[in-house]
Design a protein that fits this description.
- This protein has an eight-stranded mixed sheet with strand order 1-5-6-7-8-4-3-2, with no helix packed on it.
- It contains one helix and eight strands.
- The protein has 132 residues and is of the alpha+beta class.
- It has two domains: 28 residues; 101 residues, Metal Binding Protein, Guanine Nucleotide Exchange Factor, Chain A (Beta Complex), CATH 2.170.150.
- About 7% of the residues have low confidence.
Length: 132
């Protein structure tokens, strides 16, 4: 009797876990990625805003997962494009800063700056020409 209850409880928890994961991914915002007008770098387009790569950050600086985009430049061996997840940058508005991270592909998350942002948080710098 206890064994049947354990199996039932385990199965129920398994189903609950996967249902909650599916709901979380369904709530994510779909964003676009495209090449910059000069073709030198990728941009993220979201909610009529354009974000450009700024610098790398640590995983601890990533906030809540808010969206994803399909990285068409990184086609997997099976011919499928890769989804890259987008996160808030902890302590900052997602209207100004985003972070992205692709598990197993990128070792370090990237920080993205909305093109009109001029106030840069202390301690951050970028070596990219388009951020100067």
């Amino acid at each position: 009797m206890i064994k049947k209850a354990y199996i039932f409880l385990s199965a129920a928890l398994f189903v609950l876990f996967f249902c909650s994961c599916a709901k979380q991914d369904a709530a994510l915002q779909k964003m676009e990625s495209q090449k910059s007008s000069d073709g030198n770098y990728m941009t993220i387009i979201w909610d009529k805003r354009t974000y450009v790569p700024y610098t790398s950050i640590s995983k601890s600086e990533m906030g809540k997962k808010i969206g994803y985009y399909i990285d068409e430049s990184d086609t997997a061996a099976d011919g499928e494009d890769s989804a890259v997840y987008v996160y808030e940058y902890k302590g900052y508005s997602s209207a100004e800063w985003l972070a992205d991270y692709a598990e197993g592909f990128m070792n370090t998350p990237a920080l993205w700056r909305e093109v009109n942002v001029t106030k840069i948080p202390g301690g951050l710098s970028s070596d990219y020409d388009w951020n100067k």
